[in-house]
Amino acid sequence: NFCLYLGAVHACMQADSSRRPPPPRSCDTFVYVAGGGGPAATVFGKNADRPSDEAHEVMHCPAASHAPGSMLRCTHIEIPQVERTHAVVLSKPAWMWGCEIGANACGVVGGNEAVSSLLAHELGEEPRLLGMDLLRLALERGATARAAVGHLTSLLEEHGQGGACEEDGDWTYENGFLLADAGEAFVVETAGTRHWAVERVPPGAGRNISNGLSIRTGVESCSAGLKELCVAKGWWDGEGPFDWKRSVGAGGRAHAKLDVRGRERAGADHLAAAAGRVSDGSLPAGDVAGWLGWMAGVLRDEESGAARWGASGDGSSTHCPHHAPTPTPCQASASGLLTASCRRARRSRGARPGTGSGSQRAPPGGAAASCLACRLARGGGHTASHFFTAASDPLVACYKRWTFGDPAAAAGDGLAGDGGSLALWRRWRSIDLAGRSVPEAMRRALLEIEAEAVSAAERGGASEFSGSVARELELISSFAV
User: Fold this and answer.
1) Rounded CA gap, 384 and 164, in Å?
2) Which residues pair with 376 in a beta bridge?
3) Cβ(396)–Cβ(428) under 8 Å?
4) Which of 26, 47, 141, 289 is in Cβ range 3.0-4.6 Å of 334 for a Cys bridge?
5) What percent of the chain has a predicted confidence (pLDDT) above 70?
6) CATH code for the domain defined by 23-214+260-327+335-342+363-479
């Protein structure tokens, strides 16, 4: 009878695993905060891991005033709206209200990732705010990174997190966040429906997160009752330093999984390497193209797992730089730096395997989001440049620049609808599903668009996102299927 029971449990587990997507494997978010021996302006980047057939768009929402007492419909629930919201640019699943990555006109940028804790069972099936909803709400309401964190944690405590995180399923998860502005950054990690912890990242420091709890004893603040809960469950003795990850992630036990490893370790190594280059002078603090090229290289690093590609496992990427108020001349041209970064990644890549033109749905779990890297100027959001691929593979698609400083954006017309980004995402996916290879001449033309975008960031020129999307669509139109 016991063997029959184990067989039934195994069958249920197999059925459940076939119904649910595999755990996220390629959400990686990075920040290097300006000052203190770091870059002249904060640099931020994220690759997002979503189901591979989930369409993504880049969308601009202008600042708005709202009537007192009005309600806001998020992905699953309604909550009270505030009287004033900031302008935002978002990279998001097309079906969802919230976003994976975004920035506001005040100079705050953020990204969201799935995490897991010992309180995950609290989520259940009740619809609440998604982590992506919380990120968008924080950006729409917070004028600084610290203020955005305050809004996020207050909304989490009031409304809770939970609900389906995929369009046609019931997959749900807890969330981690990285939010930054020109002067500081914060890691926010959650457990269960309403608990959270925050770690501050000071000027001159780098930080990364990779789909796991990462805050240890550097807890700046946490939810009310969290420490008492951990004591009651035997996860913390209440006397030594409170270790968030060891408590809610491992039940107070010490084991190897508490160590930094895998993609998180690779990301930390990237940040350490950048710090070394700053120290030896090979990456000057004010080198705009150098820092953008470094972040683009990090987001295109296949070997570490930060970038994943293919219809069943794309690495999606957006990258958003905010140039320094007074950029210094680059040691190398923007084109040279970015071209070298792209080609180094591609030489080791080899031919991409196709999935067959008859495929209707790729296996779940591939990264499908556009991803974002940002360079946040100390002058605020309107001097910031944001770069998005608006495609699921950063090794092929180019980064295209968006700025809030564009007069059209200030008037609310800087990005009509999705600016063509949804069509571009779908075009690249059709190429991917057909297993088509991009010719070298086309790759060079795409890199020229990217190099022009970086050059515009150095000069402080106007945004050209929609025009760049249109150029890329025209370039790859002959490869659509």
Assistant:
1) 33
2) 42
3) yes
4) 289
5) 75
6) 3.60.60.10
Count helices and strands (H / E) in the chain. Answer: 13, 19
Which is it for strands 28-32 and 42-48: parallel, antiparallel or unpaired?
A: antiparallel
Helix segments in 334-464, DSSP class H? 334-347, 407-410, 421-433, 440-459
Look at residue 243 and give its three-state secondary structure.
coil
Task: Kindly state the tokens that stand for 220.
Answer: 């700046």
CA distance 164 to 125: 8
Exposed e or buried b per residue across 288-315, where buried means at least 16 C-beta atoms within 10 angstroms of its C-beta: bbbbbbbbbbbbbbbebbbbbbbbbbbb
Taking a C-beta distance cutoff of 8 angstroms, is the pair 258, 249 a contact?
Answer: yes
Q: Which of 295, 101, 111, 106 is nearest to 189 (CA)?
A: 111
Q: How far apart are CA 171 and CA 167, in angstroms?
A: 9
Residue with tokens 């990456």: 283
Residue 197: what are its φ and ψ, rounded to 5°?
-145, 150
Residue that has been written with the tokens 């140039």 in this structure: 323
Query: In angstroms, rounded to a whole number, what is the distance separating the alpha carbons of residues 238 and 261?
Result: 28
Interatomic CA distance for residues 404 and 112, integer angstroms:
22
Q: Please list, in sequence order, all residues whose beta carbon lies within 8 angstroms of the beta carbon of residue 72, skipping any fewer than 6 positions away.
A: 66, 78, 79, 80, 81
**Amino acid letter, 14:** Q
**What does pTM read for this prediction?**
0.82
Check: CB of residue 251 under 8 Å from CB of residue 199: no
b/e per residue, 441-461, with b = 16+ CB within 10 A? ebbebbbbbbbbbbbbbbebb
Q: Where are the domains of the chain?
A: 23-214+260-327+335-342+363-479
Q: Which residues are CB-contacts of 417 (< 8 A; sequence separation ≥ 6)?
A: 59
DSSP 92-145: EETT-SS-SEEEETTS-EEEEEEE--TTGGGGTT---B-HHHHHHHHHHH-SSH
Q: Contact 246/253 with Cβ under 8 angstroms?
A: yes
Beta strands in 202-265 (DSSP E): 206-209, 221-222
Residues marked active site are found at 27
Tell me the range of 14-23, 314-323, 399-408, 467-476 where mean pLDDT is highest: 467-476
